[in-house]
Amino acid sequence: MDITTSASLLLICSFFLMLIARFPIAFAIGISSIITTIYLKIPLMQIAQLMVKGVNVFTLMAVPFFVIAGEIMGAGGIARRLVNLANACVGWMRGGLAMVNVVDSMFFGGISGSSTADTAALGSVLIPMMVEQGYDEEFSTNITMTSSVQGLLIPPSHNMVMYAMVAGSVSVGRLFLGGIVPGIFLGIALGVYCFYLSIKRKYPKGDPFRFRILVKALADSIWGLATILIVMVGVITGIITATESAAIAVVWALFVSAFIYKELTWKKFWKVLEKSLGTLAIVMILISTSQVFGWLLTYLRMPQMAAEAVFKLTSNRYVIMLLLNIFMLFLGTIMDMSAIIIVATPILLPIAIRAGMDPVHFGVVVILNLGIGLITPPVGGTLFVGSAVSGVPIERLIKPLMPFFCVMVIVLIIITYVPEIVMFVPDLIMPVKTGG
Question: Which residue among 70, 130, 175, 269 is buried most deeply as judged by most CB within 10 Å?
């Protein structure tokens, strides 16, 4: 066995052994990288340089800004106003509060860009309301968790920023645009299933539709919704970068929460900073150690070897797409979303491109795959948050979660094999310029 093969096995096996041993993901990545580096007799100083280089990226600054903006909006009264707006839109239907949950996740997720933040902020409001009106606890929690995945697709999404950074020359603006239709499509699919269950189980209707209430709710929430427009218009037109738009979103969220809605007190603000810094510390350590891991993957030619192995197995692009989805769904059950984006993208993207997938299309498929992983045990972060917010044990949530899981997988398959769903909007608004 040559040194490249043995080093590759050492890197991957040590990493998964530490995952099995319940090491924090950042430490598992970092320690396995150091062990392999020592085995290859590469100077350890290079590890330190790569870790610093990993976080010294201008585009990466968008991640902390989007995280902070989402936390501010959750604490500043925007979540409650979005619930009122969604209720005015769809609350009159059979199973109205379930529909409100889906639509509200579309609004709030598009602002926070985080599935767990969406579940925590909206779940604490909507789950008790749904249970009080006669909905099952399990159903109320599961629709809150699954609908929150829309927030990963509908811009702005800091996970898309991370994918763009790792993938290389992928436009953040095109990625943002590519997630809009799939995010809405996922919401419609979940809404249809909720409507079916609501009729079957005879869940209650809400108050009759009133246009006056809709207008009032829209006027009350327009300041929060404007955040999406600020980010999207700025990035798409090229006036500002994704990083600059994220910084502006923070300033705007502070202004709206503190001076217009007047619900963000100093006490709440310090809690927002504390929570944001806790999240960012984990993310930044993960990114810095993953930079070393990714460099070793490239050094050992593992992306090329993986691509060659897959194409020796089959050259059918549809089978390859299916294999990529299965692999990502599996990773999503055992690893954190950010870690998978950083570690797996350099390996899987070349395979996807050779199979004919556009990097933007593949990016959206990756995000949805990993969003499904967030509600899948044993590592699913959103699953744990949903259980904590509702007080329903995870073991009670799993069985009734399966139909929701199936709906999401069906949407994933359609998005994978019908790339126009992803590519139509970016190709229309931000077409790729080709040299003449």
Answer: 70
